[in-house]
Specification:
The structure holds four protein chains of four kinds. Chain B is an all-alpha fold. Chain B is built from two helices and no strands. The longest helix of chain B has about 30 residues. The radius of gyration of chain B is 17 Å and the shape is rod-shaped. Chain C has one domain. In chain C, α1 packs parallel to α6. The N terminus of chain C is likely disordered. By secondary structure, chain D is α/β, with parallel strands linked by helices. Chain D has a domain of about 150 residues: Rossmann fold. Helices cover about 30% and strands about 25% of the residues of chain D. The chains are: A mainly alpha, B mainly alpha, C mainly alpha, D alpha/beta. Chains in contact: A-B, A-C, A-D, C-D. At the C-D interface, α1, α4 and α5 of C face α2, β6 and α3 of D.
Chain lengths: ~240, ~45, ~240, ~220
């Protein structure tokens, strides 16, 4: 009684094959436009000078890291409740990209922190939560890769993603609470209001570029997973 | 457009290009690994 | 259709909460047989707590400042070490399958097992914490807050840890993997727990931290049994 | 693929179109069978053909990819409480805690089934299974055969109508097998049902067989 009959790997595979190049092209165009706006057009920040431009990749990376984990938890709910193989494959296809973005958020945050606040690592609410989120990703990938039976790995990963996503707000609250107790100094990095229009355009372009990129990569990785798991006739039909 | 000044980023070039560089490197690495995985999964059938 | 002459056993309508006491008594009976493990967790905590003065020097003022963090991290690691005991031996000898096949609801049984685990690990740690606190120069009411925070926090370590233990059953490299899964989830408990004791040190009011810790524990008591049951079903599929 | 026994019997237990795959291998598919009340079905087949998995699917431990298990005409859901009050599953492992005594193990197992068995009832059952005088000793010090007999004592005291037994007679000596035979025949005489996975000869004749070939 598979509710999602049309979402079977066999019908998803060719669809993903046609879709991912579209998203890849969108991502590339948006990225070029965003970088051009961010590096050349956006004005110099009166306080931080040129180094603030790192925000155009730091904030999208941090958002994508968080957003992808929640999408993974969503697919996890589908995988556990409807027992569909495809949603579990999509969840696992997203994990490496989510971890990459979370790592890049930490890396760019550190390189931005040094010239601006004097230290590579800032124990503030956002950065510390991003660090914990990175460990959640490492745990997810470690768990799903160390269980041999694919079905158990998918369902264990799904449950972990759900439990993790329920804990994210609690972790975020506790870390910001902890930060306010100790330094009381919160850094407002991307003060939305005082951002010049060009800055906002660059930021929005980069966020959507990262979205399109993540979708493209997830579709390609999902196709690879289908090839690894499903018998050849399921995906070998169309011209390779 | 003075390229030298652009790359120095007000003296903070190391940090700006360190960030953008690693970002590009990460994306490139993921795409590379993904292509290898795709090729391997196609041949393994 | 030939009906089953052995009429379907109308088990006296099973009260689900009985399952809680069955699982609790079962695990306590088993734990009583290997008291050694119980003592090991306490010894481990004592050693870890005693290592820090050797590392940072005996200077009283410094030790008192780091006491909350040291005692709490040591309690966290001690709890982590005892988590495999929750399901691993039942998994090996086949009794875990029988628990899953019991007519009692699995989440209720898991709640009983988790409480039994806390009674044999978290509770003793909390009760003996003043001994470690004294080593670091904590006085009367500071020790009181330390014990209160551990009493409220260690149950959450057992609850969240049980999910990790259930997910990594029979997986190679399971114990390191389990630590990787649950330590990020322990962050709020560590922050509120150590935070409460730290506020006590600086004479501030600790009710905020302790009540947050209590809230997390109550939420855990309601939500984690369902997750533990789901994790067990996934691992034993 | 596998023999699909379209059993004519419309007994209380029916399995329809069961399919389980383990990784790349498909253990069985389109497997249907029924067991009539008072009947024993023996599952035969080489190692790894899915005998144990089939028992676990009926017991509800393993979720099949497809197919359903019905009891008295109603299909069992994944977490069906009725299934757990009907099925008694004894797997390869002894399901005994090594550090506890035979008596404690028996009491715990029955408590999990919701049966409040008194000490004398358990002691009597253990005696009947040939464990007289070994009630209080830790199971760790019992022989394999004696451990299996504690399982027999559990069968004797269980009131569950559906027995799912995986290699119930291995490690049992002739006398033990005799006791097992008496127990299972007593169970079916009362209208109970049993499915036994084994590749040893069974001490009773009146049993249907289901042979699992396993995939190529």
């Amino acid at each position: 009684m598979n509710l999602y009959r049309y979402a079977s790997p066999a019908s998803f595979y060719p669809l993903a094959g046609r879709l991912w190049p579209v998203f890849a092209v969108i991502a590339a165009l948006l990225a070029v436009y965003g970088l051009y706006e961010g590096l050349f057009v956006a004005p110099t920040d009166f306080q931080q000078g040129e180094v603030y431009r790192i925000v155009f990749i730091h904030v999208p990376a941090a958002w994508m890291g968080m957003f992808i984990y929640l999408v993974m938890a969503f697919y996890g709910v589908l995988a556990l409740s409807f027992n569909t193989r495809l949603s579990a494959m999509m969840m696992r296809a997203l994990a490496p990209t989510g971890m990459l973005f979370t790592f890049l958020a930490l890396w760019t945050g550190a390189l931005w922190g040094k010239p601006t606040w004097g230290t590579y690592w800032i124990w503030d609410g956002r950065m510390t939560s991003t660090l914990v989120l990175f460990f959640l990703y490492v745990g997810f990938i470690a768990l799903t890769e160390s269980i041999d039976d694919e079905r158990r790995a998918d369902r264990a990963g799904a449950l972990l993603a759900i439990v993790g996503s329920v804990n994210i707000p609690i972790i975020y609250f506790s870390v910001t609470w902890w930060n306010s107790l100790h330094q009381g100094l919160t850094f407002s990095k991307s003060g939305g209001s005082k951002m010049a229009p060009d800055m906002v355009i660059a930021m929005v372009a980069m966020v959507f570029a990262c979205w399109a990129y993540s979708i493209a990569v997830a579709l390609v990785r999902a196709r690879a997973i289908i090839r690894e798991r499903e018998p050849a006739h399921v995906w070998n039909g169309e011209a390779a | 457009m003075n390229w030298a000044e652009f790359f120095s980023m007000g003296g903070r070039g190391a940090f700006v290009w360190g960030s953008f560089g690693v970002f590009a490197l990460g994306i490139a690495l993921e795409v590379l690994l993904l292509r290898m995985r795709s090729r391997r999964s196609k041949e393994a059938a | 259709m030939s009906s089953v002459s052995l009429e379907l056993v109308e088990q006296s309508e099973l009260a689900p909460e009985d399952g809680f006491w069955v699982a609790l008594k079962r695990d306590l009976a088993i734990a009583m047989q290997n008291k050694g493990e119980l003592a090991q967790a306490l010894a481990f905590m004592a050693i870890v707590v005693s290592l820090f003065p050797l590392a940072v020097g005996p200077e009283a003022q410094l030790l008192k400042r780091i006491a909350p963090g040291v005692v709490w991290v040591a309690a966290l690691l001690a709890a982590l070490l005892t988590l495999p005991r929750l399901f691993a031996s039942d998994y090996q000898d086949g009794t875990l399958e029988q628990v899953l096949l019991s007519p009692y609801p699995l989440p209720v049984l898991c709640a009983g097992k988790t409480l039994a685990h806390w009674l044999t690990t978290g509770l003793p740690l909390a009760v003996l914490a003043p001994l470690f606190g004294l080593q670091y120069g904590l006085n009367g009411d500071e020790l009181g807050v330390l014990v209160a925070s551990l009493m409220l926090g260690t149950p959450v370590l057992s609850m969240l840890g049980a999910i990790g233990a259930a997910l990594t059953l029979g997986v190679r490299g399971g114990s390191i993997l389990m630590a990787l899964l649950v330590l990020p989830l322990f962050v709020p408990v560590l922050i509120f727990g150590a935070g409460a004791v730290e506020q006590a040190l600086s004479g501030q009011d600790t009710t905020a931290n302790l009540s947050l810790l209590g809230a997390v524990m109550l939420a855990g008591a309601v939500l984690t049994p369902v997750a533990i049951a789901a994790a067990l079903r996934i691992s034993l599929d | 693929m596998t023999t699909a026994v379209q059993a004519a019997a419309t007994g209380p237990l029916r399995a329809e179109g069961l399919q389980v795959t383990r990784g790349p291998r498909q253990l069985f598919s389109e497997l249907s069978f029924g067991i009539d009340s008072g009947e024993i079905l023996v599952l035969r087949g080489a190692n790894g053909t899915g005998k144990t998995t089939l028992l676990r699917v009926v017991a509800g431990l393993t979720q099949p990819d497809q197919g359903s298990v019905q009891w008295c005409g109603r299909a069992w859901g994944a977490k069906d409480a009725e299934r757990r009050s009907v099925c008694l599953y004894l797997g390869h492992a002894h399901a005994l805690k090594e550090e506890l005594s035979a008596l404690q193990n028996l009491k715990l197992a029955l408590a999990l089934d919701g049966i409040e068995a008194g000490t004398e009832a358990c002691a009597h059952a253990l005696d009947a299974c040939g464990l007289a005088g070994r009630h209080a000793v830790q199971v760790r010090r019992l022989s394999q055969g004696q451990k299996r007999r504690v399982g027999l004592a559990r069968l004797a005291l269980s009131e569950k109508p559906l027995w799912l037994l995986d290699e119930p007679t291995n490690a049992l000596d002739a006398e033990g097998i005799e006791r097992f035979s008496a127990l299972i025949l007593g169970h079916t005489a009362k209208g109970g049902i049993a499915a036994v996975a084994t590749h040893l000869p069974m001490p009773f004749q009146s049993a249907r067989e289901l042979r699992l070939e396993g995939s190529a």
